[in-house]
Amino acid sequence: MIDAFRRLYGSADGIRVFRAPGRVNLIGEHTDYNLGFVLPVALHLATYVATAPARDGKLRIYSEDRRESAEWPAGEIAALTPRRHWTDYPIGVAQELIRAGSPVAPANLLVRSTVPEGSGLSSSAALEVSSALAMLAGRRMAPLDLARLCQRAERNFVGMPCGIMDQYISVFGEERAAICIDCRSLKHQVVRLPDGVAFVAVNTMVKHQLAGSAYKERTEQCAAAVDVVRARHPRVESLRDVTPAMFDEAESSMPPIIARRARHVVTEDARVVEFVAACREGAVERMGELFEASHRSLQHDYEVSCDELDFLVDAALGIEGVYGARMTGGGFGGCTVNMMQPDVVPHFEREIVQLYHERFGIQPGIYPCRPSWGAEEEKNLERIPAVAQL
Ligand code: ADP
Ligand code: MG
Questions:
Q1: CB of 331 closer than 6 angstroms to any ligand 1 atom
Q2: Contact in structure between 336 and 204 (CB atoms under 8 Å)
Q3: Which of 103, 180, 341, 344 holds its CA 20 to 30 A away from the CA of 210?
Q4: What integer pLDDT is reported at residue 389 of this predicted model?
């Protein structure tokens, strides 16, 4: 990466590299913006941002994936407006840093990533967090402040009203463990994953158009469900506060579609809690059942799945040694996450690729999930992948 940097900018004097991982969410889908529980794992797939001071007063950024660079006078960053371009992510971060009293110095930046873009493995948060660390260039920021700052960048500048999960796990990830985040208190527990189970993400390679508009619609539907419950329970502020018993009592007062959306969120929160307990007991069969139950709830109640995801889940569940499968991420495409015995992974990969290709004529992406540590400076430059590799 140092050589690439030198070729691009002529010098690598004072270079530092910062790494932030992508993630796969094991369970707890569409619960984060309802202030409930999520259980993501930080991946070995990560975004690296190399940075060195620039002497000409400019902030420059080049993405190897896009083979595209952009530059601005550093003094003008605070006044930039979004342009619906990948640079909105780092510029959004820069503006939030400035707003938080942390000026952004002139610098040359180089972005390299092994997180597939737009697949639900959160390349956006990996880019935000690695850019933020690069622009901080070693200045300290409390981890939770860093995650929240990057979330604000995506909400305020990119214009995506996302929850906190992606940025949080990119900052707080741990090796060999998942992180159970309480999206209300913004505290988390480290959940060690049992031995004898492997997780593999499979990418449908599709992204249906619905994704953006459906997200807004779901948030409105969840708010409508909260209004119904609140009529009897005034202290309820979000679906997080709605117990299964409260939901049962209110269900008949809700329009059917609102009831289905709320049922997903209420039962999904309960599944996360049960999954964490099953994880701690090493109850892998139960973990697998909860995976499948989560998928069915997303498919039928929250209605954010699609044919490609449903096919991958059904196909995976038919493979010997697979404990469970579900869509992960926002839906309408992106990835599934599959839980299986470690020794069946090679067979699973061959089978799922063949079945999916036969049905859709598409080669799916396969990403074995290695739970990895959260964002930090990468001091061991040998560890940076030479080219984008999965
Ligand atoms: P996801 O976070 O699931 O990968 P998003 O749609 O939230 O999907 O974010 C993907 C967007 O993030 C891309 O369209 C691009 O604008 C930006 N992005 C992510 N990684 C890179 C990268 N390495 N180089 C340039 N832009 C990137
Ligand atoms: Mg994203």
A1: no
A2: yes
A3: 180
A4: 47
